[in-house]
## 1
Amino acid sequence: MNNKQVKVYTFTIPANGAFPLLVISDYFRIQSATGAVDVNGDTFGTLPDLLTGQGLENTPYNRLTFVDKSGAPNTVSVLCSGDLFIDNRLYGVVTISGDISLAAATLSAVTDTPKARTLANVAFQGGRVQAAGANASVVQLWNPTAGQRLVVRNITASVGSNASIELFASTAAIAGVATYAVNKNLGGALSLAELRSLANAAVAGTVLATRRLLGNTTEAFDLLEPIVLAQNSGLCVATTGSGINLEADFEFYTEAV
């Protein structure tokens, strides 16, 4: 470490004007600026059109001159130091240009948070109760809507007596009157996805999981990743035998496709 101080200088450059900064150092970094600036150093020439986060290291200088390129008064904050000042934070407005290799899921995670989905009126929760009948009890979440997919995050089920249940994918809506899940942003519009239930002898679909439940207990299907329902697809919870009360609940959010 040399004996040159680390210091931040803040100043305003007139529109299209210049501001001289008399400082002896080896490193500078623009901490913030209203617009682009040219930076002229007495030892390195001119660096054109610099923006926030840009600068120069390992280059001794005795004077810097900042020239506004924005055409308006330009408030600049610059850090000067005798050694490289490390600051790897991302803050303010981040601009990504050119090709990037980040997965879409990585980028969406920045803004796609549970609270943001609720405030955007795309998060829902709902369930149905199917009374015991002569056939298996089935509760279904069904997506009838074009241009929308359902991302199911949580499924719970309970039975009135000891029973085996199945979670399975379906390609047809079961009969019965549809109800609609409640918006988690209370007061928001109900979901377009349908909740259906029936005592149905013809339970068919691709089984995803099975559970053995004690009566009057609740079981959650643990999902490491969500289950995604495209248009005209459904997710069912069903008993494998007849004469059993069944309740199933679904938590999900919607995405445009």
## 2
Amino acid sequence: MSFNLIKFSSPKEYSKVINQNLNNLKELEENKYLKEYLKVLKKETTIDEKYSILYIKRHLLTNLEYNLESNLKFSKIPFFLYYFLRILLSIFQSLIKYDKKNNYNLLIDDWYNNSIKSFYSFSDDDFKDIKFKIMNASQINKILFRDLYKSIFIYFKTRKIIKILSKELNINFKFIHSIIILNFFTGRYLKYKFNPKIILSGNDNGFPYLKAKSANCKLFTIQNGIRGKESDANFTYADLYFSFLTKESSYIREEGGCINEKHIEIGSYRLSEFYKNYIKTPIKFDVTYIGTYSNSIENECLLKHFFSHKTNEVESIKTFNSLTKEFPNLKFSYFPRNNNEIFELEKSGLISDNIEYLDRNTYNIYNVITSTNLILSSCSTTGIEALALNKKIGFINQSGNEDLNPLFFNEEIEFKKNIYFPDDLKSFIEHILTHSIRIEKYIKQDFDAKNTILNYIKEYINEKES
């Protein structure tokens, strides 16, 4: 049986195609050759089938959108050579930089530069009673030299079934298998060198959970943003998931095949950290637009089908600019994703004299939210963060993608082409200013989220040590 996922060419097609692909992936589990492969893999690696099949589905969907395999420099070389080049390179990395063997209760995933301060806001005082290590665990690709023999053994045990699967499913299963094996061996490296009880990561939509499972530890993840049905938000895993959303509103993740063994509602982690030092400020703006224009430009190659700045953000900004004519007595502001964004807007002729453009070096985004009555964006996490602060929110979606803000689909707070108030922007704004949203349906903000997370970590460590 040939297995094909559908590619989409525009944001308008995204909703229909992604749902169809998610359904098609359900059939994958019934393939007899895949079942045989998973059985062999579990025997040789001890990785449970549910983690492997989850990763395979995730890779297939992500590769379809981001075209991962075509970005490989050596994608055309024979599988035998590619497989062992990866293994040998990882062994070499472990040899040239020796990590002393140690035991840690906790590994904190520093998944981007300075995330310890800018995302987690951690200090040494937070871990007085916990032996911890900070490292980019996501990117660890080292393998123990002693695993070279086992890698050869696994190769010969699986090569025939991999060849059949590649042909049977019409996919590059060789590449998928090599990544699974690399995660398995690097997980064994983490286990041998650091022996963690927990890996904590804010990279909830990107941490390689096969690595954590192979390290025989628990994976705790903190949701770092709200997503729709983007491919990299599907088929994720966490033993304990600190969620932005309530369980009631997490159905989108379940539809996307995500598995969270335990779901803890904390709301926005970063908002919680801001609120600790919050001093109430007077309302300064009536309406603020949270920009994502520079993100659309920087990631156009990745986002063009889902969220194109040409078809969405530019039109959304033009729509926002037109509000100043509809409501001349209101005070408007624009908060950019980065300071260079204002320059880009000016270059594209998208600046309005009736809008105050805020400098990120002067304003904190949460200070802006607290000093504004209405927050607008095309698809920003700050929308639900503003809701947690009891602010009015709305979305301007000009992309044609029906799933850009699926969480609020039934609230009628999204200005779309040909849907809801199609010709009357003024009526739309008047509607969202008076529309009441049941906040607790979507988010239950924990304003002491850091301590909540630390308590769960300490509780699990104490349980393991007792």
## 3
Amino acid sequence: MSPLNDLMVFDRVIMVHANGNITQPEEFYEPDCMIAADENGQILAEHERDWINGVRDYGWEPLRGYSAQDGYGGPIMHPSEFVGGRLAKEIQSEPGAYVAALIEVIPKDKDDNPEPAGRAVLRYEPKHSDYPHEPGRLPGCFACQYGPCLCDPETDAPCASEYCQQDRADDDDR
């Protein structure tokens, strides 16, 4: 198992920083990961597509192609699979927020408990606030605060993103 797997317990959001540090931000919540199934309990492509669109509505993007299930390249991994190898390398090389989400099948009867279907690793895709502002400068805008470097080379304005690629040694000069 990888050390990253130990940090990515179900439903705990982690933040991978550009310097390689990993923290657990308190302002993040994982999306609800309930998925529909057919009358036999099978998750069909249409169910998976609807689930993906649902988590995208909340800004999360499922990482695909990391399941060891034969012939399957989608985002849902078997519950026994772990965050290691290629998947861990991708996560550690791309700063951002991630969560290992437990995927549960929506019960047919409202009195039943959901059944676990697997797990998926989701990456938060920052989107700018609709309120007009300069990139990197609006408090409360996730993309400005945590997103990729938003420095505007035309204005030389400092970027508020902690992923800023500018040399921080000269911050006092700005």
## 4
Amino acid sequence: MSETIVLRQSTDKLLAMAVGCLAGIGACAWALVNLHTGNLVENVESIRRGWFAYWLLWAGLPFLGVGCWVFAKDGMAAARGRASLTLDEVGFQEQTTGRDRRLCWNQVSPFEVYTKRRFGVPAVSMVVFDVLDQPADWWSGMNRNVAGRGAWLQQSYELPPQELADLLNKYRDAALSDKLESVGKCEPA
């Protein structure tokens, strides 16, 4: 496969983060309004609402700040076209917020789909793989305990996870077959 494919970041993740940020801003706004008006009324219900509003405001602000920061960072990366997965005959390059790595096809195991279940219901599916000849570290050990593999792609780039795994395996198999001799030219970033 000599064709280079560039897959862009899924907008679903950004949309979910935007909804979460708006919900957090709404909850904090409700808490501020409730604190402002709730302290003037001297009944038991307003006191309960006031304590809940204090808790919601001070516990929610750090999470809201981090969530909005990650959303802004991911959104800017997606707007600049920086959040992508590039596949070519030599390997793949994953560029996301906080990650820019290039791996050669001969450095990775076959790709599989891991589905995390919550309460017996499939919740999240992701593409997992192993980086061969990588020294064992804490993160890869934790990943292996959770998903059975040492590494994964952070998203599926607007493809269903199984289709992405099949596409990656197709490129990997073509590169490792005797047809291509360019695998030796790979220099990871």
